[in-house]
Each structure stands twice: as C-alpha cells, then as structure tokens.
Amino acid sequence: MTITEKVAYIQGLFDGMGLDKSEEPQAKVLSEVLDVLREIGDEMDMLDATLDEHGKEFDGVEDAINDLTEGLTELEDEVYGVDDDDDEDDLEDDDEDFFQVDCPNCGEELIIDDEVLEAGSIDCPKCGQKFALSFDEDEDEEKEDD
C-alpha cells in the first residue's frame, strides 16, 4: 500500500466518523493533518516517478563515482608508493611507538607514546593521580626477583 493509498484510507475513516470541522477543534486539526499527509503522499509519488524515469541516469552517476574512486586510489598509490603490504608494515611500526601502563592507584590501563615516556610522569585521566613512568629493564628484573 502506497502512502497515498494509506492517506486515502485514513481520510475515509475520518469522513466516516461524521465529525464537523467547523464545530469541533479536534476535527479541524485532524483535517489539516490529513491535508498535509495528502501533499506528502503526492510529493512522494512524484519523486518515485522521477526516479523511475531517470533511474538509468542515476546508475551512470554511481558508475562514474566508482570509476573516480578507483582512479584516486591508483593515483594515491603512485604518489605515495603505498600498496597493501606497506599498510600492514606501517601498522606494525606504529604499534612499537606506544606502550601500555597501568595506573598504580586505580588500575586504569593507559596507552602512552614516546613523548609521555620521556616526560617521566603522567596524570591518570581516570583518578587524577600523578605517577612516575619507568621502563628500565633492570628495575623490572629486580621487581621479579623480589
């Protein structure tokens, strides 16, 4: 059932109720709402007809966009020298620049980079506690021996 058909059905229900638009404010509101719905249904029918009429033209636009996207991807590969294998290598290199530490106060897992590590301390964003950072392997080994 189309929108226009549904609106016609509701209009029939409204008319069958025998409400007087001039005397009952609710009837006047319902009548106005039905008018708006009828206009929306007419607009939707026109849009559907236009899409049906020009559907093949829109398919051509979609194909053109896909062609442009492929061309842009090829151009990026040429300019930046990137291929699929390089993407995986880049991700692995990026992972090496980040470290995971736990806040000694609240246990929140934090991901930090080299800059934060070099600063030597960090404020936990969860609890606000400031703590020192140390990734000295000798200290880690001493803690394990204890």
Task: Summarize the structure in short.
This protein is mainly alpha-helical.
Backbone shape:
elongated
| N-end to C-end Cα span | 77 Å
Strand residue content: 5-15%
| Computed Rg | 33 Å
Description:
The radius of gyration is 33 Å and the shape is elongated. It is mainly alpha-helical and 146 residues long. The protein has two domains: 3-80; 97-145. It has helices spanning 3-17, 25-80, 84-95, 114-119, 137-145; strands at 98-102, 109-113, 121-123, 130-132. It has five helices and four strands.
Spell out the blueprint of helices and strands.
Blueprint: H1 3-17, H2 25-80, H3 84-95, E1 98-102, E2 109-113, H4 114-119, E3 121-123, E4 130-132, H5 137-145
Antiparallel strand pairs: 1-2, 3-4
Helix pairs in contact: 1-2
Structure keywords:
146 residues, mainly alpha, 2 domains, two-stranded antiparallel sheet, 5 helices, 67% helix, disordered C terminus
